[in-house]
Amino acid sequence: MQSSILIPRFMVMAAFMMLCAGSARAQLESGLGASTSGASPAAYYYISKPGEITMNINVWGFVRNAGRYEVPISTDLVDLISFAGGPHADADLSSVKVSRSVRRGTAVRTVEYYLDLSRLDKLDQKALDLEPGDTVYIEPVAFTGRDVFNLVAVAATITAAVASMIVALNQ
Prior knowledge:
Radius of gyration: 24 Å
Number of domains: 2
């Protein structure tokens, strides 16, 4: 008789543990900046008026809508990030990377440079200019206290689920 009670209790505990693990994973992903917007990983945005000369730029990292943007040739870096929905709260604007392919004759090499957009007043407007084919990447800020809290919360949730399961099995 006791074994018939133990099996349903075990099944309930296993379901609870899976639920907690799924919830913990979602908390971990949202805490570490994973995209939860539902946007397609192959997003393409066309932002131009008919007849305007455009260029393609890639935007990666901690912006609201990462993807490939076809924008007017006059678009600068600040405009592009604005088109991408702006930076996430955890974006590191002090070190925005721009990668550009430079052609010299038949040789092609990639040049990367970093801009501190947290100090726009100190930047020359020319530094914000983009060229066709550029890739802009905004990294997350360094590990924060909030990230540590999220990791501890996830670990505590999983530990509590495992402990509950062990207690239920021993009864």
